[in-house]
Design brief:
The complex is a heterodimer of chains A (623) and B (253). In chain A, 55% of the residues lie in helices and 11% in strands. By secondary structure, chain A is of the alpha+beta class. Chain A has four domains: 69-178, Butyryl-Coa Dehydrogenase, subunit A, domain 1; 184-301, Butyryl-CoA Dehydrogenase, subunit A, domain 2 (Beta Barrel); 317-433, Butyryl-CoA Dehydrogenase, subunit A, domain 3 (Up-down Bundle), CATH 1.20.140; 434-480 and 487-607, Up-down Bundle (Butyryl-CoA Dehydrogenase, subunit A, domain 3). Chain B has one domain: HUPs (Rossmann fold, 3-Layer(aba) Sandwich), CATH 3.40.50.620. In chain B, helix 2 packs across helix 6 (193-199). Chain B is globular and about 70 Å long. Classes of the chains: A alpha+beta (623), B alpha/beta (253). Chain A binds chain B through residues 74, 76-78, 80-82, 84-85, 89, 108, 111-114, 117, 121, 126, 564, and chain B through 31, 35, 71, 74-75, 78, 190-194, 196-197, 200. Chain B: Pfam families: ETF. Chain B: InterPro entries: ET-Flavoprotein_bsu_CS, ETF_a/b_N, ETF_b, ETF_beta_N, Rossmann-like_a/b/a_fold. Chain B: One of its GO terms (cellular component) is mitochondrial matrix.
């Protein structure tokens, strides 16, 4: 009797499109595998499990240590020459003014080996791991993002496809070329296909002789488009599927020398002006079938993997940019005297510097957490990589902007250099997956993961006697949560003693986040796809949770290693956790009737402005 | 063709703000950025260029110091030196290491390695001694061309242009010889990342001063290391008499 009652209670609590929350009222943080139904996908991703209200620590605690002694030693030797080159040879102001990298600098960068950092040494590169790459890219980001994009467009995405998907012949042929002086570019975006990458119109049709594809189309905003010899191009190819012909995207390696490839003039940009950005046109280009990359019809997967794989690089570069801006602001605040005091003695300035420091610390922690996980062989890093890119680019804007503010009028002057950096980094919120799309991607992927487990559970309910244990445990946990006794995972063993309070708060937030996701699914079901205001709130919460976990992990490591900056780091981590968990606390309100009304109001207003072609209301005095 | 021995020293990086240890026994070196003495970079560059011009057959880089001196040697290898010799000296022996000790080591090594040209930086930026080249030449009884801003090979030996107070002086020396490199001798190349990777494969030999028969016993004792006195504010003086009075007061006249 008791059993049936529990089942009834549990199924009443859960309802049509609910999912389960694995509630740990006491006990240690456990992996998601312990109680989840067998057939739904398992994952070690912190973010995916967050959506289930579960704290999955394996990718976050302890902070990754991916460098072997040899790799660490190598990195110690590689960083100084790169630093020296960017301090003494590269002239970012001149690059910006000329909208071109100086020839001598480009030659120096090739000689330095900067264009093939992750290519295997046998094929002409330096064979660096992701973490080593991140450290060097940090140096570049601290000095010149325009050069950073020239390097990144080349190796982070331009020929990355060959590294990830190339067959041995493609690797043997192309990798020595792209490390030997030939530039590469990534050609996906088209005039009518930006975020909607699946809708590209460039087409590649198999020629009658079956030996070539004939490529036609045009691409826009292509970095290195005007200088690249070797391009990764994405085009629709007709595929036979179930007796019908459908279009699927295929990735190709295309050489300018194939003929029919041309590029437009360099675009006149707000920032990263020395990076070459052009349109690229393909007119009846004959691409050998051997140059298909990753298999016919797999282009979308190839593109997404390439972009995912390179994302941590942006976070690393921007961590360097933020560190540099913070240094300028700090130096100024410590010396400039007004009203008889140094700027840094005023609370307002202290708060600015503290917030800038927190943002830089989080960005850097994310970059090395993602690169470290990738180096350890982790496959499930896509949400975390997306979060690192979104966070890094958003916070870089804030940090450099505040840096300018602290420097006052001087900050506004070209000579100070910060205005150029601000112009340079603006694009990072837009390209390689706009932040807006990536936030939705995080929210939807997380919800889908949560939902898939829910569907399995619903199946369990259809056959309760086979899954009684599961149902009992879930129902029991639910009851505990309802009574308010649930505290979430026990993180005490994972963090420094000083940070346990913050960690407990995070654990509680993770729990409640899961409840929010459940409530969202209950309310909207599959229709959640169209509820972007809600999705954005959930994405913000996911970012708050992951960033908090990342800094708690890093600061705990600092304390464990007794780094000189351990106290400072723990202060940063605790402050970040304080504000992030508070923001997460207001998430539940995002689904309250009041918030939903507000959201609808915003939607209508936004729509009205678009229809009216601007602000519908006229100037107050109507003259 | 010559076999060139180049002496390189690991010093605190020129851009670092030096801090004196609270116990006044020396300067803070722990966790501080170190790099190759800039004049030694110029020395290595000159040796490598000689090899590229086929005036030298082999460049051997030498450094006397603790384990970390190997990093400095690797930089020399990355710049183009063929092999390296690390004379490991650490702890109190390193604290009291003087140019005379180093000169004796270089002299012995040049004989063991059959080098006929020694190039070192004119002075190290930490102790500013400007003694090692001169002492090494004297120990070997070789001619010396110090403060070199240009080195040319001639049939008889070397023609060295030296930077002196009054301008430039040209001397001719026979070989073998010792050169100390001055600032305008050349502009050192940047170590490229591929060369750094290649340098890992070049041979690095470790020897001790004892192996070379050099006694490292201290000839000096550091009594104290202090910051230079803080600069006092000046004052404007109304007339010459007051100036003379103040100078007398300060014991300056």
């Amino acid at each position: 009797m008791k059993g049936t009652k529990l089942v009834a209670c549990a199924s009443r609590c859960i309802g049509s499109s609910n999912r389960l929350i694995a509630v740990h009222s006491r006990g240690k943080a456990t992996a998601a595998t312990a109680e989840a139904p067998r057939s739904a996908r398992q994952s070690t991703s912190f973010t995916l499990n967050l959506f289930r209200g579960q704290f999955e620590p394996s990718q976050v605690f302890p902070f990754p240590e991916p460098l072997s002694d040899d790799q660490r030693q190598m990195l110690t030797e590689l960083v100084p020459p790169v630093e020296k080159f960017f301090q003494e040879v590269n002239d970012p102001a001149k690059n910006d003014a000329d909208a071109q990298i100086e020839d001598g600098t480009l030659a120096g960068l090739w000689e330095l080996g900067a264009f093939g950092l992750q290519v295997p040494t046998e094929l002409g590169g330096l064979g660096l791991s992701n973490t080593q790459y991140a450290r060097l890219v940090e140096v570049v980001g601290a000095h010149d993002l325009g050069v950073g994009i020239t390097l990144g467009a080349h190796q982070s995405i331009g020929f990355k496809g060959v590294l990830l998907f190339g067959d041995p012949q493609q690797k043997a042929h192309y990798l020595p070329r792209v490390t030997g002086g030939e530039y590469a570019a990534f050609c996906l975006t088209e005039p009518s296909s930006g975020s909607d990458a699946g809708s590209i119109k460039t087409r590649a049709v198999l020629a009658p002789d079956g030996k070539h594809f004939i490529l036609n189309g045009s691409k826009i905003w292509i970095s290195n488009g005007g200088i690249a010899e070797i391009m990764t191009v994405f085009a629709q190819t007709p595929i036979e599927k179930d007796g019908k012909t459908v279009d699927k995207v295929t990735a190709f390696i295309v050489e300018r020398s194939f003929g029919g490839v041309s590029s437009g003039p360099p675009e006149n940009k707000m920032g990263i002006r020395c990076s070459n950005t052009t349109e690229v046109y393909f007119e009846d280009v004959k691409v050998p079938v051997a140059n298909v990359l990753g298999g016919v019809g797999n282009g979308f997967k190839v593109a997404m993997n390439i972009l995912n794989n390179g994302r941590f690089g942006m976070a690393a570069a921007l961590a360097g940019t933020q560190r540099s801006a913070l240094r300028q602001a700090a130096e100024h605040a410590a010396t400039r005297v007004q009203f008889g005091k140094r700027l840094c003695e005023f609370g307002g300035v202290q708060e600015k510097l503290a917030r800038m420091a927190m943002l830089q610390y989080v960005t850097e922690s994310l970059a090395y957490m993602v690169s470290g996980n990738m180096d350890s062989g982790c496959q499930d890093y896509h949400l975390e990589a997306a979060i690192s890119k979104v966070f890094a680019s958003d916070s870089a804007w804030t940090v450099v902007d505040e840096s300018i503010q602290i420097l006052g009028g001087m900050g506004y002057m070209k000579a100070t250099g910060l205005e150029r950096v601000l112009r340079d980094l603006r694009i990072f919120r837009i390209f390689e997956g706009t932040n807006d799309i990536l936030r939705l991607f995080v929210a939807l992927t997380g919800i889908q993961f949560a939902g898939s487990h829910l569907q399995e559970l619903m199946r369990a309910f259809k056959n309760p006697t086979a899954h009684l244990g599961l149902i009992f445990s879930e129902a029991g946990k639910r009851a505990t949560r309802a009574v308010g006794l649930a505290r979430g995972a026990d993180l005490d063993p994972l963090v420094a003693p000083e940070l346990r309070g913050a960690a407990r708060e995070l654990a509680r937030c993770v729990l409640e986040y899961g409840a929010c996701v459940e409530a969202t699914l209950r309310k909207y079901g599959r229709g959640v796809l169209d509820e972007q205001l809600v999705l954005n709130r959930l994405a913000a919460g996911a970012i708050d949770a992951y960033t908090t976990a990342a800094v708690l992990s890093r600061a705990s490591r600092a304390q464990r290693l007794q780094l000189p900056s351990a106290q400072h780091e723990m202060g940063l981590a605790e402050s970040w956790a304080e504000e992030a968990t508070e923001r997460m606390g207001s998430l539940a309100g995002a689904l309250a009737p009041r918030a939903l009304r507000h959201g609808q109001r915003l939607s209508s207003l936004g729509q009205a402005v678009a229809e009216a072609g601007g602000q519908p209301s006229r100037t107050p005095h109507n003259v | 063709m010559s076999r060139v021995l180049v002496g390189v020293k690991r010093v605190i990086d020129y851009a670092v703000k030096i801090r004196v240890k609270p116990d006044k026994s020396g300067v803070v070196t722990d966790g501080v950025k170190h790099s190759m003495n800039p004049f030694d970079e110029i020395a290595v560059e000159e040796a490598v260029r000689m090899k590229e011009k086929k005036l030298a057959s082999e460049v051997i880089a030498v450094s006397c110091g603790p384990a970390q001196s190997q990093e400095t040697l690797r930089t020399a290898l990355a710049m183009g030196a063929d092999r390296a010799i690390h004379v490991e000296i650490s702890g109190p022996e390193y604290e009291t290491l003087q140019p005379l000790h180093v000169a004796k080591i270089l002299a012995k090594l040049s004989q063991d390695e059959k080098a006929d040209l020694i190039i070192v930086g004119k002075q190290a930026i930490d102790d500013d001694s400007n003694q090692t080249a001169q002492m090494t030449a004297a120990l070997l009884d070789w001619p010396q061309g110090t403060f070199a801003s240009k080195i040319e090979k001639s049939d008889a030996g070397l023609t060295v242009t030296r930077e002196i107070d009054g301008g430039l002086e040209t001397v001719k020396t026979k070989m073998p010889a010792v050169i100390s490199a001055d600032l305008r001798l050349n502009e050192p190349r940047y170590a490229t990342l591929p060369n750094i990777m290649k340098a890992k494969k070049k041979p690095m030999k470790k020897v001790s001063a004892k192996d070379l028969g050099v006694d490292l016993a201290a000839r000096i004792k550091v009594i104290s290391v202090e910051d230079p006195p803080v600069r006092q504010a000046g004052s404007i003086i109304p007339d010459v008499d007051t100036l003379v009075a103040k100078l007398k007061e300060g014991g300056h006249i």
